[in-house]
Amino acid sequence: MPPRQFDGSRVRAVRRGKDLGQKELAAEVGVSGPTVARWEGGQDFPKGEKLPAIAAALGQALDVLFPHEGPPDLQLLRCDAGLSVAQAAAIIGTSRVPVSNAESGRRRLSDAYVQALAEAYGVTEAELLAAQDFSFGLRPGTSREGQVSAPRTIGEKISYLLRHGYVGQEPPSDDEIARAVNDHAGVTVVTTDDIIALRTGATTEASDVVRAGLAEALQVEAALFQDDSEVNPAARELLEAIRFIGSIHRGQILGLAARGNDGGLSAETMAHINELVGELKNKLPGVPDGE
Predict the structure, then answer these.
(1) Residue 146 and residue 123: Cα distance in Å, rounded?
(2) Average pLDDT, integer, range 200-224
(3) Which sign, positive or negative, has the C-alpha torsion 191, 192, 193, 197?
């Protein structure tokens, strides 16, 4: 799906109103006639960077023909400039990876790329950075300092999971983590001192084998430890849920409910909490299925 709303039947109606054939529209946009037919029939969607050309060919304002909700993110800015990921990457002289990572909320753009991309997208640097914040889950009106930072380094991720991920049970010790990592690797790849160094930040480098072992030891997806970039939105949502459920267990939230309806949580809120727990408890370390 493109980042804007796309309604093929509406495109068809506007095209016919302009007395424009599918082949003519296709020629304007740079695709084939059958491609336009699939768009209009709902069998396919155009790439987001094609929408400006479609709107221009039909004489319509982009926001009118293809509206979008909320502030723009990086993908929307790129697509509204009519650029593919490869074209945007060529502008800053890199592979597609930095552009894709930033759009998916995985790793922020290097400062060296901001000015060139802002110019290519037809926005200010401040607007580009605001869109990047939105791609990383920061909403307008909040500051990076005002939000709980997502763990990035190996040590931050280990500490986060040890602190928030073991509801009602003792988290594994450094020695237990080291043994689990070595068991997963099939050979000795770390010592207890190595785990302590990683956890405390004294060491920040680890092999792929160690990173995979840490994920196994702490019972999370291997992708969480693949690198030291900011976690993607889906992973951050899970980490926030882990922290939230941990706060429930410690009484920080349920304690509010005990004060009564005037100062506590509504029945609807408590139902939502129960639903959240039900959805996520099987993803938490040490919680068996069906418990």
Answers:
(1) 26
(2) 86
(3) positive
